Amino acid sequence: LAEVYIQSTNHLYAENIHAQKRDALYRKNLAKIDLVSQVRDSHDYEIVDLDHYFEFFGGLSKAVETVKGEKAAMLISDTTKEVIKTEDVGDVIVRGTRTRLLNPKWIDGMLEHDYHGAQQIADRLENTLGLAATTNAVPDWIWSSIAERFVFDEEMRKRLEENNKFAAVEIMERLFEAEKRGYWKATEEELEKMRKAYLEMEGDIEEGLKMKEVK
């Protein structure tokens, strides 16, 4: 991940210089970074809402960690209020998750929109996975809570399927990926429940496709 970020951003722009690769100079500067910061200037977006946060904010942090050999502090300054508040990235991820993926009102609002609603939920989960990969700041309880909310709750799982069965499968696959990559230390009980739910959902989708073929 760090190398992908470095190779896509290690170009120099200056007077009479346009996009010239300066890998050694870039790495030299990365090695001097102690703090990576991000400004939040709108109430419209939390850190889990956009992939840009993990792509650039998280990507830069991962690049610094790889080149320097130690993590840089990751802080986000919220400028949406009169008094600016600066928080650690882990606290911001928790707030973003609570107000989006673990917020019943937000979930209900998303699922009012056929097809796109469940996809919006899946997109936030993919962004959370990206944040886990680039910040190492997504705790186990967040993954467990997401699984509890969207997979282990049979009623919610059915709502997701009805809204967008492919997004529902994607949500499960992102959870399996988080566990496989070591971002989520799921219990064996959680994994067994995940496997069972996944097989049930695959069966429902196959049955639905067969019914369409018959019609």
Question: What is the gist of this entry?
Answer:
The chain is built from nine helices and five strands. The chain is mainly alpha-helical and 215 residues long. The strands form two sheets. It has a three-stranded mixed sheet with strand order 3-4-5. A two-stranded antiparallel sheet has the order 1-2.
Describe the structure.
This protein has 215 residues and is mainly α. The protein has two domains: 1-88, no CATH class; 100-215, no CATH class. Helices cover 65% and strands 12% of the residues. The protein is built from nine helices and five strands; from the N terminus they run αββαβαββαααααα. The protein has helices at 2-9, 23-30, 51-68, 89-99, 104-111, 116-135, 140-152, 154-180, 188-214; strands at 11-14, 17-21, 35-40, 73-78, 85-88. The strands form two sheets. Strands 3-4-5 form a three-stranded mixed sheet. Strand 3, helix 3 (51-68) and strand 4 form a beta-alpha-beta unit. Helix 3 runs parallel beside helix 6 (116-135), helix 7 runs parallel beside helix 9 (188-214) and helix 8 packs across helix 9. The longest helix is centred in the last third of the chain and has 27 residues, at 154-180. The termini are far apart. The model has no long low-confidence stretch (mean pLDDT 94).
